[in-house]
Write a structure and sequence with these properties.
This protein is of the alpha/beta class. It folds into two domains: 2-166 and 349-368, Glycogen Phosphorylase B (Rossmann fold); 169-346, 3-Layer(aba) Sandwich (Rossmann fold). It is built from 15 helices and 13 strands. The protein has helices at residues 15-29, 46-49, 67-81, 96-103, 115-118, 126-136, 145-154, 197-210, 225-237, 252-261, 281-288, 301-304, 319-331, 333-346, 350-368, and strands at residues 2-6, 33-38, 54-56, 87-90, 108-112, 139-142, 160-162, 184-188, 215-219, 244-248, 264-266, 293-296, 311-314. The strands form two sheets. The chain has a seven-stranded parallel beta sheet, with helices on both faces. A six-stranded parallel beta sheet has the order 10-9-8-11-12-13, with helices on both faces. The chain is globular and about 65 Å long.
């Protein structure tokens, strides 16, 4: 069995890329025969850029924005690259339309992450094209039960499964870092409104009032300069200028050190016109470093966080509840450490996620051949149903 994997810019600096890298490497480690289709000239990972079966397709992120434009420019490349493959798996949602056209009778799987899986279904003409491609897919593999619920609300006929994101646990095991001079709360995500930074800053103001020794550090690229300016203004108005640090994008080594040093990692997403957090891999990354987390209900964090086990879930857009959760962890470092240790045992390795994908590939290949058998079990213990 050979699998054609189609994705965008292969870089860990954004969510799609981080997910695709984890899937590709885990499948490769399992010995799966893959043909990789991505914007090869934008791949910043040496081990993947030089793969002999790495074919080029235009980038949705940088070159061909829009479903129809991407379909027109990407279809010839995907048709050519998928020849001789048994299964097509679209790891980045916008490529599903040309992938569906190229698949023919072969099984097609598409991974549905979050915003870009759902928002195009709410507007024309993208709704027709994306809806057709999702219905054509043998399986829409959602990264969380929340994303699946959002998808089925728009497209009840879609055939879905949940395979969560994974963690390369070895990457997060480092020698004990030098302790931070002052305790700090950490957020890791680009500056976007749906990430809930406006809520976190209001929550931190309440935390700082009770614990003036605590700081708040934000690691993430500036995707929305206007929002960043608003956040800085609000920080100044609350008298928190010296206590809140905007670090910008950081490299992986620095990020892992920050995870290990922080008192806790919190991200408080909000739903913003069909823009939402599909899973929240950063919660599991922090858990892999032994740190507790705080997230919100009403998004994919409900799959990543088991409330009271590896972190706390609070209502979205509720600074008071978020502050209470953070203060509770700050007040009891031993309990916070225990929660972080439990988190290490709850995160899903990429290998397990890849094994579930392989089971889906095999099932749909057998089904196409007329002998499907029982569908495989996917997801992970404790996941919402």
């Amino acid at each position: 069995m050979r699998v054609c994997l189609i994705t965008d810019y292969l870089s860990p600096t954004y969510g799609w890329g981080r997910h695709a890298l984890g899937v590709i490497r885990a499948l490769r480690d399992l010995g799966v025969s893959i043909r990789l289709v991505s914007p090869q000239h934008l791949c910043d990972q040496p081990d993947l850029a030089g793969l002999p079966d790495h074919r080029r397709v235009p980038s949705f992120v940088q070159e061909a924005r829009g479903l129809l434009r991407l379909t027109g420019r990407g279809l010839p490349a995907i048709l050519a690259a998928s020849r001789g493959c048994d299964v097509l798996h679209c790891l980045t949602e916008p490529y599903v339309v040309p992938a569906a056209l190229a698949a023919g009778r072969r099984p097609l799987l598409v991974t549905a992450h979050g915003t870009y899986a759902i928002r195009p279904l709410t507007r024309r003409p993208d709704r027709w094209w994306l809806g057709w491609a999702y219905r054509r897919a043998a399986r829409v593999v959602c990264v969380s039960s929340f994303t699946r619920a959002q998808l089925l609300a728009q497209l009840p006929a879609a055939k879905t499964a949940v395979v969560p994101e994974g963690i390369e646990a070895e990457r997060f095991r480092i020698a004990p870092p030098v302790p931070a001079e002052r305790p700090f709360l950490l957020s890791v995500a680009p500056i976007k409104r749906r990430k809930g930074y406006h809520v976190a800053i209001e929550a931190f103001a309440r935390v700082h009032e009770r614990r003036p020794d605590v700081e708040y550090w934000i690691a993430g690229a500036t995707d929305d300069p206007v929002l960043l300016a608003e956040l800085r203004e609000r920080v100044a108005a609350l008298g928190l200028t010296g206590a809140v640090r905007f670090l910008g994008r950081v490299d992986d080594e620095t990020l892992i050190r920050l995870y290990h040093q922080c008192a806790l990692m919190w991200l408080l997403p909000v739903m913003d016109r069909y823009q939402f957090e599909g899973f929240g891999l950063v919660y599991w990354e922090a858990n892999a470093c032994g740190r507790p987390v705080v997230g919100t209900t009403g998004c994919g964090a409900v799959d990543a966080i088991q409330d009271g086990m590896n972190g706390y879930l609070v209502p979205p857009d509720d600074p008071e509840a978020a502050a209470r959760a953070a203060l509770r962890l700050l007040a009891d470092p031993a309990a916070a450490d225990a929660m972080g240790r439990r988190g290490r045992g709850l995160v899903l390795p990429w290998r397990t996620a890849a094994e579930q994908l392989v089971a889906l590939y095999e099932y749909h290949c057998q089904r196409a051949a007329g002998s499907p058998g029982a569908p495989p079990v996917t997801g992970y213990p404790g996941a919402p149903q």
